[in-house]
Design brief:
With about 450 residues, the chain is α/β, with parallel strands linked by helices. It has 14 helices and 16 strands.
């Protein structure tokens, strides 16, 4: 009889716990879809402040805005964390055209982040098309020297996960100038990182690595339509020339900030869970998808908990990182100070894949914690959150190195993200209010579960 009574008590406890969690999920999603502020915050961040490239005046305005909104939520702490960040300025709008015999055809380009400028009057040279960094080695200095290297490897269309196609292409953007410079190239142009054929060049980070500054060469992205046209024309005239003019400039690093809002844990204040996105964006648009969406969703997680009167067991922070786009200094500084202060982070969640409909999460964790996550699937099923996979989670939380930590990345539908990523059309009108709110609710739900049940 005693064993039966204990088993009955256990079953009653399990049923109660499941019912409690289901009700919490319902409360979270209902609040997010009816009373959330995240869409109006994004409207302000995007349309009143605009692009927020690290080191810019508008980035500092965005930081001040986010801090002020967090201060209205009744959190235990809201503060800024000093970070030195790069300051790169694009300058006047880039100019480019194809010179094919006597025909001049304008082509949309934009400088890649950190690029040097061309000469004041621009640069004109013959073009050599390649599809990989490896091809440079095969061609050698004799065929590359003095030419513009044109990287034209498109996204692989067969991948269902768009981020896989991005990952298989982005090396030509990030390392392209550095590698081409070794063979004496005059400049590089890189096919934009997206599936769609359009006239929007997509900027992004690039690195000269350990090259001496006198070896730096100008580097720019070319729109996918521009890349298609240039490739076609090269097939008919391998000796055609390309003109490009960039006016960008790099200055000394400047002071900026991560923005942090915190609810202190009621039982384990020394255990820290973070949810975050990056507040900086590229300068071509207001960065609503990348990563204004992640910023306001992270803020919304704290608002949800406060408005629902949920008192977390562990300390929960929203961390709005600066300088993810062109240096990662915000994430690095956060980890540096976490180590210095001997902080114990047990869970970190990042949203940096756009404000589209949430599909699930990617996780960096051991087998035991992944099994725990999979046991929670039934709670997410009614909200169509069904993808739980092992994979990369986020570049800012990637720096965290606590003794034992589970990391997660929100995984929205990825099909349209690269239509906007780092381009001039990454604007507020491309974000759907309901999709944004569903993402915030999904993030809050996972935070709730890890707060309730901890990590193994």
């Amino acid at each position: 009889m005693k064993k039966i009574a204990l088993f009955t008590l256990f079953l009653t406890s399990v049923v109660y716990s499941q019912s409690k969690d289901q009700q919490m999920f319902k409360d979270i999603y209902t609040f997010s879809l009816t009373n959330s502020n995240c869409y109006s915050w994004l409207d302000d961040l995007s349309n009143k402040i605009g692009s927020r490239l690290s080191g810019s005046v508008s980035a500092e305005k965005g930081i001040a805005y986010a801090k002020s909104k967090l201060e209205t939520l009744g959190l235990d702490k809201v503060y800024l964390q000093e970070v030195m960040v790069p300051k790169w300025v694009r300058g006047e709008k880039e100019t480019a055209y194809i010179l094919d015999n006597k025909t001049k055809t304008a082509i949309p380009i934009c400088a890649l982040g950190g690029s040097i400028a061309t000469a004041k009057n621009g640069l004109t040279a013959e073009v050599i098309e390649v599809h990989s960094l490896k091809e440079l080695e095969i061609l050698g200095t004799e065929k590359i020297k003095g030419k513009i290297v044109f990287y034209n490897r498109p996204f692989e269309p067969e991948n269902i996960d768009a981020f896989k196609s991005y990952g298989n292409c982005v090396d030509q953007r990030f390392y392209g100038a550095k590698e081409a410079a070794k063979y004496g190239a005059a400049a590089t142009i890189v096919r934009s990182m997206n599936f769609r054929l359009d006239d929007f060049p997509h900027t992004g980070a690039q690195s000269y690595g350990d090259l001496p500054k006198e070896k730096y060469i100008p580097t720019a992205a070319i729109s996918t339509n521009g890349a298609e046209l240039l490739s076609k024309k090269l097939k008919g005239n391998s000796g055609l020339k390309f003109y490009m003019k960039l006016s960008c400039q790099t200055f000394e690093d400047v002071l900026s900030y991560n923005v942090i809002g915190e609810i202190t844990g009621s039982e384990h204040p020394e255990k820290i869970m973070i949810v975050g996105g990056h507040i900086d964006s590229w300068d071509l648009a207001d960065g609503s998808q990348d990563d204004g969406a992640g910023v306001v969703q992270s803020m919304e997680v704290l608002e949800l908990f406060k408005k629902l009167n949920y008192k977390p067991k562990n300390t929960i922070r929203a961390v709005l990182f600066i300088n993810e786009e062109n240096g990662g200094k915000g994430g690095k500084k956060y980890e540096e100070l976490a180590k210095q202060n001997k902080e114990n982070h047990i869970f970190a969640l990042e949203s940096d894949a756009g404000g589209f409909s949430p599909r699930g999460f990617t996780f960096e964790c051991d087998a035991a914690n992944f099994e725990k996550v999979n046991n929670w699937k039934y709670l997410f099923d009614p909200y169509l959150i069904q993808s739980f996979t092992i994979g990369g989670t986020g570049s800012d939380i990637g720096h965290l190195t606590s003794a034992k930590i589970v990391k997660a990345g929100l995984a929205p539908d990825s099909q349209r993200y690269f239509d906007y990523h780092h381009a001039a059309n990454d604007t507020f009108d491309a974000v759907n209010k309901r999709e944004l709110e569903l993402g915030a609710a999904t993030m809050a739900s996972l935070m709730y579960l890890f707060d309730q049940y901890g990590i193994d």
